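Narrative summary of target 7.
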Amino acid sequence: MTMTNLAELLSESQSDYLVYDLGRRVQAIDADTFNAICAQQRPYPYPLQDHAWFAVVFWPKQQADQPEPFLWFLKMPLDERGLLNHAAQQEFMAHVIALLGQQITGALNDEQEQQLQQSAYLFTPSEAKRAAIHAQLTANWQRPPSRYFRAALEELHSPTPEGWQQLGLQGIHDVVVRLHAHPEVTKALALQFESYPEALQNALAEALEHTQPPQELSDKLLSLINAPRQQLRLNALRALAGCANEPQLHELLALRMPVATADELVIIVARLWPALCGHGELMEPFLVRVAQLNNAALFAGIVRDLLRLPETRIFALGLVQRNDLPVALYQAWQQFIGAKL
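Modeled conformation, tokenized:
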């Protein structure tokens, strides 16, 4: 059989595998969706900067219940339709097969490892993204968390004046993905989130955005969307990324939208874009607010992102093609399409 895409390479190599998006949120992509993406039967669901950023975690099918996986962090270009570039898949596959043959789960020596890392399609995710995927994998496979877990659990539950400075980032992510098993820590986070030192609060928000927080914590975060402090509002929005389809969030965003700052609008499109997809008609007040800020670069960047995301594209296009657009939005849109000509 001739292999034409990444999914076929993994299947033919007798590998079990998992795929995670790494561009926006660390979230799983199911096997059927990944097969369709690789076969160019559907667009990549979470494009960022015209690329798909994803992790492939794979191991031999005959391996025991506790796999020691191989891991590829891949960055591949998308075409104008948002489909995974076929030539890029072919080039990466040829590079892998030249090094390893079709048995891609074989052990690599140092020279092979160095040669593999020279691929233009491999990238190094941020420390936070690596921590998030490691935490999700160990939790899903019911493996012990990292050695940083216990200290993070205790510090988040009962903060000390300087203890947060000693926490490992991996420990924070390990705690966050296990909150449902630790209701006492969930309660502590809800009570203390806004009073944590800003650096710790930032790290917590960055970890929470890759999960769906327990209800008690998400209720608290929702109450902070209109907090007086800008950084607290931004962190609450990020931490609620897993709740983007919740009606209560849509209601609060509708109230916030007329006064939202540029940074808040960027987080909404980058992390909470599902909220703009027809739920309570948030797309119009969102784009009106972007236009009102009178920042052509901001408007262009956000509109391009909306038009690239498969979920938001139809809603954004349907809005800007109307004949009765609010003046600010009409003018910003005309400037945008004029600049493209």
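The chain has a mean pLDDT of 93.
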